[in-house]
Amino acid sequence: MVGGRLGSRLLVHAILIVGIAVMLTPIWLAFVVSTRPGSDFMTGDFPLWPGPDFVKNYRTALIDGQPGAGLQPVGHMLWNSLVMALVIAAGKIAISFISAFAIAWFRFPFRVAAFWIIFITLMLPVEVRILPTFAVTASLGLLNSYAGLTIPIIASATATFLFRQVFMTIPDELTEAARIDGAGPLRFLVDMVVPLSRTNVAALFIILFIYGWNQYLWPLLVTTEPGYETVVMGIQRLAQSASEGSPYWHLVMTTAILAMLPPIAIVLSMRKLFVRGLVETEK
Protein backbone atom coordinates (compact mmCIF):
# COMPACT_ATOMS: atom_id res chain seq x y z
CA MET A 1 0.00 0.00 0.00
CA VAL A 2 2.77 2.36 1.03
CA GLY A 3 4.84 1.33 -1.97
CA GLY A 4 1.93 2.03 -4.29
CA ARG A 5 1.46 5.52 -2.87
CA LEU A 6 5.17 6.22 -3.19
CA GLY A 7 5.17 5.03 -6.79
CA SER A 8 2.18 7.20 -7.70
CA ARG A 9 3.81 10.24 -6.10
CA LEU A 10 7.05 9.63 -7.97
CA LEU A 11 5.11 9.29 -11.21
CA VAL A 12 3.20 12.53 -10.59
CA HIS A 13 6.40 14.40 -9.73
CA ALA A 14 8.14 12.99 -12.80
CA ILE A 15 5.30 14.19 -15.02
CA LEU A 16 5.44 17.62 -13.38
CA ILE A 17 9.20 17.84 -13.87
CA VAL A 18 8.87 16.90 -17.55
CA GLY A 19 6.11 19.48 -17.99
CA ILE A 20 8.19 22.19 -16.32
CA ALA A 21 11.18 21.32 -18.49
CA VAL A 22 9.08 21.49 -21.66
CA MET A 23 7.75 24.92 -20.69
CA LEU A 24 11.04 26.39 -19.48
CA THR A 25 13.32 25.13 -22.26
CA PRO A 26 12.15 27.68 -24.88
CA ILE A 27 12.50 30.48 -22.32
CA TRP A 28 16.01 29.35 -21.43
CA LEU A 29 17.01 29.17 -25.10
CA ALA A 30 15.59 32.65 -25.68
CA PHE A 31 17.65 33.94 -22.75
CA VAL A 32 20.78 32.26 -24.13
CA VAL A 33 20.25 33.90 -27.51
CA SER A 34 19.73 37.28 -25.80
CA THR A 35 23.21 37.12 -24.24
CA ARG A 36 25.20 36.38 -27.40
CA PRO A 37 26.16 38.33 -30.54
CA GLY A 38 23.71 38.11 -33.39
CA SER A 39 26.37 36.73 -35.72
CA ASP A 40 26.64 33.57 -33.60
CA PHE A 41 23.37 32.28 -35.00
CA MET A 42 23.99 33.00 -38.66
CA THR A 43 26.28 29.97 -38.86
CA GLY A 44 23.71 27.49 -37.53
CA ASP A 45 25.44 26.94 -34.17
CA PHE A 46 23.13 27.02 -31.17
CA PRO A 47 24.99 27.03 -27.82
CA LEU A 48 23.09 26.12 -24.66
CA TRP A 49 24.87 28.45 -22.24
CA PRO A 50 24.73 32.26 -21.85
CA GLY A 51 27.30 34.34 -23.70
CA PRO A 52 29.34 37.46 -22.91
CA ASP A 53 27.01 40.13 -24.36
CA PHE A 54 24.32 40.18 -21.66
CA VAL A 55 24.89 43.79 -20.60
CA LYS A 56 25.52 45.02 -24.14
CA ASN A 57 22.40 43.45 -25.66
CA TYR A 58 20.07 44.52 -22.88
CA ARG A 59 21.46 48.04 -22.88
CA THR A 60 20.99 48.24 -26.64
CA ALA A 61 17.41 47.03 -26.40
CA LEU A 62 16.39 49.08 -23.36
CA ILE A 63 18.17 52.39 -23.91
CA ASP A 64 19.89 52.73 -27.27
CA GLY A 65 17.57 50.95 -29.67
CA GLN A 66 18.56 49.66 -33.10
CA PRO A 67 17.67 52.20 -35.81
CA GLY A 68 18.83 49.88 -38.59
CA ALA A 69 16.18 47.35 -37.55
CA GLY A 70 13.54 49.97 -36.89
CA LEU A 71 13.71 49.32 -33.14
CA GLN A 72 13.06 52.22 -30.80
CA PRO A 73 14.34 51.91 -27.20
CA VAL A 74 12.34 49.13 -25.58
CA GLY A 75 12.16 51.00 -22.28
CA HIS A 76 9.59 53.41 -23.70
CA MET A 77 7.70 50.55 -25.35
CA LEU A 78 7.53 48.76 -22.02
CA TRP A 79 6.07 51.91 -20.48
CA ASN A 80 3.44 52.15 -23.21
CA SER A 81 2.50 48.49 -22.75
CA LEU A 82 2.36 48.92 -18.97
CA VAL A 83 0.07 51.95 -19.20
CA MET A 84 -2.16 50.16 -21.70
CA ALA A 85 -2.37 46.96 -19.64
CA LEU A 86 -3.05 48.74 -16.34
CA VAL A 87 -5.71 51.07 -17.76
CA ILE A 88 -7.45 48.23 -19.63
CA ALA A 89 -7.44 45.94 -16.58
CA ALA A 90 -8.58 48.61 -14.13
CA GLY A 91 -11.16 50.04 -16.53
CA LYS A 92 -12.65 46.68 -17.43
CA ILE A 93 -12.93 45.71 -13.77
CA ALA A 94 -14.50 49.03 -12.72
CA ILE A 95 -17.08 49.12 -15.51
CA SER A 96 -17.92 45.42 -15.28
CA PHE A 97 -18.11 45.50 -11.48
CA ILE A 98 -20.63 48.33 -11.46
CA SER A 99 -22.62 46.87 -14.37
CA ALA A 100 -22.84 43.43 -12.78
CA PHE A 101 -23.81 44.95 -9.41
CA ALA A 102 -26.60 46.93 -11.04
CA ILE A 103 -27.93 43.81 -12.77
CA ALA A 104 -27.71 41.66 -9.65
CA TRP A 105 -28.92 44.21 -7.06
CA PHE A 106 -31.59 46.37 -8.70
CA ARG A 107 -34.93 45.20 -10.05
CA PHE A 108 -35.70 47.30 -13.11
CA PRO A 109 -37.56 46.59 -16.38
CA PHE A 110 -35.66 44.59 -18.98
CA ARG A 111 -32.92 43.80 -16.47
CA VAL A 112 -32.50 40.24 -17.77
CA ALA A 113 -32.67 41.44 -21.38
CA ALA A 114 -29.92 43.98 -20.71
CA PHE A 115 -27.72 41.26 -19.29
CA TRP A 116 -28.26 38.97 -22.26
CA ILE A 117 -27.56 41.78 -24.70
CA ILE A 118 -24.22 42.28 -22.98
CA PHE A 119 -23.59 38.55 -22.94
CA ILE A 120 -24.39 38.11 -26.65
CA THR A 121 -21.53 40.46 -27.55
CA LEU A 122 -19.20 37.61 -26.55
CA MET A 123 -20.27 35.84 -29.72
CA LEU A 124 -18.95 38.64 -31.92
CA PRO A 125 -15.31 38.03 -32.84
CA VAL A 126 -12.82 40.86 -32.65
CA GLU A 127 -12.54 41.01 -36.44
CA VAL A 128 -16.23 41.91 -36.70
CA ARG A 129 -15.92 44.85 -34.31
CA ILE A 130 -12.48 46.11 -35.23
CA LEU A 131 -13.38 48.32 -38.22
CA PRO A 132 -16.40 50.07 -36.63
CA THR A 133 -14.40 50.60 -33.45
CA PHE A 134 -11.50 52.06 -35.42
CA ALA A 135 -13.86 54.37 -37.35
CA VAL A 136 -15.33 55.73 -34.11
CA THR A 137 -11.87 56.12 -32.58
CA ALA A 138 -10.60 58.02 -35.61
CA SER A 139 -13.67 60.28 -35.74
CA LEU A 140 -13.12 61.22 -32.09
CA GLY A 141 -9.48 62.11 -32.73
CA LEU A 142 -8.10 59.43 -30.43
CA LEU A 143 -5.46 58.03 -32.78
CA ASN A 144 -1.88 58.11 -31.49
CA SER A 145 -2.90 58.59 -27.88
CA TYR A 146 -3.15 56.53 -24.71
CA ALA A 147 -6.90 57.13 -24.75
CA GLY A 148 -7.11 55.57 -28.20
CA LEU A 149 -5.09 52.57 -27.06
CA THR A 150 -7.32 51.83 -24.10
CA ILE A 151 -10.82 53.36 -24.09
CA PRO A 152 -12.25 51.65 -27.22
CA ILE A 153 -11.53 48.14 -25.84
CA ILE A 154 -12.17 48.83 -22.18
CA ALA A 155 -15.67 47.29 -22.01
CA SER A 156 -15.81 43.58 -21.17
CA ALA A 157 -18.83 41.30 -21.38
CA THR A 158 -16.75 38.46 -19.95
CA ALA A 159 -15.89 40.35 -16.78
CA THR A 160 -19.51 41.50 -16.41
CA PHE A 161 -20.70 37.91 -16.67
CA LEU A 162 -18.13 36.63 -14.17
CA PHE A 163 -18.89 39.35 -11.63
CA ARG A 164 -22.62 38.75 -11.97
CA GLN A 165 -22.08 35.07 -11.23
CA VAL A 166 -20.04 36.02 -8.16
CA PHE A 167 -22.69 38.44 -6.91
CA MET A 168 -25.39 35.81 -7.35
CA THR A 169 -23.59 33.69 -4.72
CA ILE A 170 -24.00 36.38 -2.05
CA PRO A 171 -26.73 35.11 0.31
CA ASP A 172 -30.09 36.85 0.14
CA GLU A 173 -30.07 37.01 3.94
CA LEU A 174 -27.04 39.28 3.80
CA THR A 175 -28.75 41.56 1.32
CA GLU A 176 -31.94 41.71 3.40
CA ALA A 177 -29.96 42.40 6.57
CA ALA A 178 -28.22 45.31 4.86
CA ARG A 179 -31.56 46.73 3.75
CA ILE A 180 -33.01 46.40 7.24
CA ASP A 181 -29.99 48.21 8.69
CA GLY A 182 -30.67 51.07 6.28
CA ALA A 183 -27.69 50.47 4.00
CA GLY A 184 -28.25 51.83 0.52
CA PRO A 185 -26.86 50.31 -2.65
CA LEU A 186 -23.63 52.34 -2.54
CA ARG A 187 -23.00 51.53 1.12
CA PHE A 188 -23.69 47.84 0.53
CA LEU A 189 -21.37 47.88 -2.48
CA VAL A 190 -18.47 49.46 -0.61
CA ASP A 191 -18.81 47.71 2.75
CA MET A 192 -19.96 44.25 1.71
CA VAL A 193 -19.60 43.45 -1.99
CA VAL A 194 -16.11 44.85 -2.55
CA PRO A 195 -14.50 42.98 0.42
CA LEU A 196 -16.25 39.74 -0.57
CA SER A 197 -15.06 40.10 -4.16
CA ARG A 198 -11.45 41.03 -3.41
CA THR A 199 -9.91 37.73 -4.48
CA ASN A 200 -12.12 37.53 -7.58
CA VAL A 201 -11.04 41.04 -8.56
CA ALA A 202 -7.39 40.06 -8.12
CA ALA A 203 -7.77 36.93 -10.26
CA LEU A 204 -9.56 38.84 -13.00
CA PHE A 205 -7.04 41.67 -12.83
CA ILE A 206 -4.21 39.27 -13.64
CA ILE A 207 -6.09 37.82 -16.61
CA LEU A 208 -7.06 41.24 -17.97
CA PHE A 209 -3.57 42.67 -17.41
CA ILE A 210 -2.05 39.91 -19.53
CA TYR A 211 -4.80 40.44 -22.11
CA GLY A 212 -3.96 44.14 -22.34
CA TRP A 213 -0.21 43.51 -22.33
CA ASN A 214 -0.41 41.08 -25.25
CA GLN A 215 -2.54 43.33 -27.46
CA TYR A 216 -1.09 43.59 -30.95
CA LEU A 217 -3.77 44.18 -33.59
CA TRP A 218 -5.45 47.16 -31.92
CA PRO A 219 -2.23 49.14 -31.16
CA LEU A 220 -1.06 48.40 -34.70
CA LEU A 221 -4.20 50.07 -36.07
CA VAL A 222 -4.43 53.15 -33.86
CA THR A 223 -0.74 54.11 -33.63
CA THR A 224 1.37 55.50 -36.44
CA GLU A 225 3.91 57.36 -34.30
CA PRO A 226 6.87 55.51 -32.74
CA GLY A 227 6.20 57.17 -29.39
CA TYR A 228 3.07 55.04 -28.86
CA GLU A 229 4.39 51.67 -30.00
CA THR A 230 4.03 48.78 -27.56
CA VAL A 231 6.62 46.13 -26.83
CA VAL A 232 4.67 43.47 -28.77
CA MET A 233 4.84 45.70 -31.85
CA GLY A 234 8.59 46.07 -31.26
CA ILE A 235 9.05 42.31 -31.21
CA GLN A 236 7.16 41.94 -34.49
CA ARG A 237 9.17 44.70 -36.15
CA LEU A 238 12.46 43.18 -35.05
CA ALA A 239 11.42 39.66 -36.04
CA GLN A 240 10.54 40.93 -39.50
CA SER A 241 13.99 42.52 -39.86
CA ALA A 242 15.67 39.35 -38.61
CA SER A 243 13.69 37.14 -40.99
CA GLU A 244 15.03 39.21 -43.91
CA GLY A 245 18.57 38.09 -43.13
CA SER A 246 19.78 40.77 -40.74
CA PRO A 247 21.58 39.46 -37.60
CA TYR A 248 19.06 40.80 -35.08
CA TRP A 249 17.81 37.59 -33.48
CA HIS A 250 19.71 38.40 -30.28
CA LEU A 251 17.74 41.65 -29.96
CA VAL A 252 14.48 39.87 -30.79
CA MET A 253 15.03 37.47 -27.90
CA THR A 254 16.24 40.26 -25.62
CA THR A 255 13.04 42.19 -26.26
CA ALA A 256 10.97 39.04 -25.77
CA ILE A 257 12.62 38.33 -22.40
CA LEU A 258 12.02 41.92 -21.29
CA ALA A 259 8.40 41.69 -22.42
CA MET A 260 7.84 38.64 -20.20
CA LEU A 261 9.08 40.25 -17.00
CA PRO A 262 6.14 42.55 -16.07
CA PRO A 263 3.43 39.85 -16.51
CA ILE A 264 5.55 37.40 -14.54
CA ALA A 265 5.99 39.97 -11.77
CA ILE A 266 2.22 40.60 -11.64
CA VAL A 267 1.42 36.89 -11.47
CA LEU A 268 4.02 36.17 -8.78
CA SER A 269 3.03 39.13 -6.62
CA MET A 270 -0.68 38.23 -6.74
CA ARG A 271 -0.50 34.45 -7.02
CA LYS A 272 -2.14 33.74 -3.66
CA LEU A 273 -5.09 36.02 -4.36
CA PHE A 274 -5.30 34.57 -7.86
CA VAL A 275 -5.64 30.99 -6.60
CA ARG A 276 -8.09 31.99 -3.87
CA GLY A 277 -10.13 33.94 -6.40
CA LEU A 278 -10.43 30.92 -8.67
CA VAL A 279 -11.71 28.66 -5.88
CA GLU A 280 -13.74 31.40 -4.09
CA THR A 281 -12.55 30.50 -0.62
CA GLU A 282 -13.97 33.63 0.94
CA LYS A 283 -17.58 32.67 0.21
How would you describe the overall organization of this protein?
The chain contains 14 helices and no strands. It has 283 residues and is mainly alpha-helical. It has one domain: Orthogonal Bundle (MetI-like fold).
What structural keywords apply?
0% strand, mainly alpha, MetI-like fold
State the distance separating the first and last CA atoms.
Answer: 37 Å
Q: What is the CATH superfamily?
A: MetI-like
Oligomer: single chain
Spans where pLDDT lies below 50 across 5 or more residues: none
The amount of beta strand, in percent, is under 5%
Overall pLDDT metric: 83
Compute the number of helices: 14
How many strands, what sense, and barrel or not for the largest sheet?
none
Brief write-up:
With about 280 residues, this protein is an all-alpha fold.
